[in-house]
Amino acid sequence: MAPPPAAAAALAACILAVAATLAAADDPYRFFTWNVTYGNINPLASTPQQGILINGQFPGPRIDCVTNDNIIVNVFNNLDEPFLLTWNGIKQRKNSWQDGVLGTNCPIPPGANYTYKFQAKDQIGTFVYFPSVSMHRAAGGFGALNVYQRPAIPVPYPPPAGDFTLLVGDWYKAGHKQLRQMLDAAGGALPPPDALLINGMPSAATFVGDQGRTYLFRVSNVGVKTSVNVRIQGHSLRLVEVEGTHPVQNVYDSLDVHVGQSVAFLVTLDKPAQDYAVVASARFSPAAAAAAPLMATGTLHYSSAVSRAPGPLPPPPPEQAEWSMNQARSFRWNLTASAARPNPQGSFHYGTIATSRTLVLANSAPVLAGQRRYAVNGVSFVVPDTPLKLVDNYNIANVIGWDSVPARPDGAAPRSGTPVVRLNLHEFIEVVFQNTENELQSWHLDGYDFWVVGYGNGQWTENQRTTYNLVDAQARHTVQVYPNGWSAILVSLDNQGMWNLRSANWDRQYLGQQLYMRVWTPQQSFSNEYSIPTNAILCGRAAGLGH
């Protein structure tokens, strides 16, 4: 029986009110349409090159969003090769389906498109995106992704007069296909890069501000393999963010930023109104040890300046690892500051939690089938034709090497494989990265932040735990491991999914220095993990299986 008209009207009004409340409660959406193409670029004035452009731009468009915004990016691949983007540092809460690496996503075929749908959930800070297939990132396709705080959650410093984004990285004259051919032919490391760039330029980037005001500089290393040191002539750098978390605000003359890392610092324009050099120089590589180390320069331009500041460019710090390691140890978590959530960072007492297991992961450079590869505990990762996330979702056999990477180096013969380490949701684990080579390593974990509790020289032993910082270690998503040294992290596995743990040095990643971690619970629930997207591309052995 139908309700009386008055009751029906009241019911309709109630439904509309509830719907309006739900709509108002939904976090904002930001929509982007990106066309990925080849195009002519000229970052090194004497050498025109074919670059990878997004909407005709190199570097790609900057995404500015706010904590918890929903990001919808429809990517059209107009290249002649499959293409993917990964969102470096965005945790993809419960949603590794959107991570954009070859272990979670089928690449976008030439002439096709894919729409990423993800949320900057409970995050704030300086991030980047870049191509994750092959050596595409050496040709462009990268850009900034800045997540600003909600008005209700203050940051621990006064609002700056403005902020500047610096995408710093190494650059090659050779194209991405030529670089890939080098690696495929003989393996081993790429040769030293030809240049460093700031925002796609070796010397023309300019940042304009007013005398007496303070600005936020967001710096990300988007290069292939080279660590950099960043400094500004005559000015101090007050560190205020490290990859989405707030550190104690120490002041530095310069900052080391390793591949895949991001930092943000405040600079007050308190000098005479002139132009000052912004300098990035290579660190810990043949490019840094050369007679003329690689360097990129920009300009901090005071708006009323009519001349350049006198004097030489600010010199780099000592090349020795000890200087850089001591700087890294000085990065400390600000325990009283809020990040994206209202509760203080220090309310999570990570140092009091017992670890459930320890992984000691050693990088190496074995020769397999006549090719120099890179490996983790003797296993060199080979990318399968079917993403591991799809393999796991559809229970496809004989693809994944479950737990085939030993928890510690075991001295077994080097071998190839497709290793996935199985871990339980809500485990709390210790990971030690052991570097037995003379090359600085940079390690990144998708889906997570972690606490960097220790750095050291030589071989790690369990006795090193007495040196860990268990109170205010810096949280971040990418950690450097110094030559012939170790770095230790603690990770709270609160994000279910298939997550890539990889070398951020892209030639090493391409040749096998990576693995995946499946964080899982048998309790299937949307509160733990989202289902496969209806628009997921299916390829390899998952082709035709349906969603």
TrEMBL record:
Signal peptide: 1-25
Top-rank lineage group of the source organism: Eukaryota
Domain (Plastocyanin-like): residue spans on this chain: 35-150, 163-304, 386-524
Alphabetical list of Pfam families matching this protein: Cu-oxidase (PF00394), Cu-oxidase_2 (PF07731), Cu-oxidase_3 (PF07732)
A molecular function GO annotation: oxidoreductase activity
Gene3D superfamilies on file: Cupredoxins - blue copper proteins (2.60.40.420)
UniProt xrefs under CDD domains: CuRO_1_AAO_like_1 (cd13846)
InterPro entries: Cu-oxidase-like_N, Cu-oxidase_2nd, Cu-oxidase_C, Cu-oxidase_fam, Cupredoxin, CuRO_1_AAO-like
Keywords noted in UniProt: Signal
Coiled coil: none
Family statement: Belongs to the multicopper oxidase family.
Protein name in UniProt: L-ascorbate oxidase
